[in-house]
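Dear colleagues,

As part of the handover before I leave the project, I'm documenting each prediction I ran so the next person doesn't have to rerun anything. This entry is a single chain, and its sequence is reproduced below.
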Amino acid sequence: MQSAPPAPLRRYLLAGLLAAAALGGMLLLVRPLLFSFAPPIDDSNFNLVGVLQARDAPLLIEILLNEAHGLPGEVHRDERVGLTVVVSSVGTDAFAVVDAWSPTNDCAITLGADRLVDCAGDAWTYDGVPIDPVDPALTGFPTSVRNGAVLVDFTRPITPPSS
């Protein structure tokens, strides 16, 4: 025959269960507050790549945006929009991000040895400035660096100055 635990032990078990329930309740209340201080996750605050990775060499990156922005080279995938961009270092903690779609030949841009090149051989610097001044510049995007990451605003495209 099994006897019930002594009264002090039952009180400790009950107190432990009440403390666990109170802690769980507090976490449910505090969690939404923590996320309310975080910046919104949308196309105006897009975490593209880590700073250390972007410093090494220019990168060609395919991303999924949350909505269409009418950018050259956008590819619609179900409810999201794909876009390929080039990110390159242009200073100690400064980065250029440009659309990897040719404004002259309506085709994808690839990374060359020292420049960006499209399907017809037109070329741009890694920050989107045309090598041939008669060609238009590539569409660029505002960038910032926060917490070791390159953040990009895809809602405000910009055109870099021509050389």
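The chain has two domains: 1-38, 46-152. The radius of gyration is 26 Å.

All the best with the project,
I.
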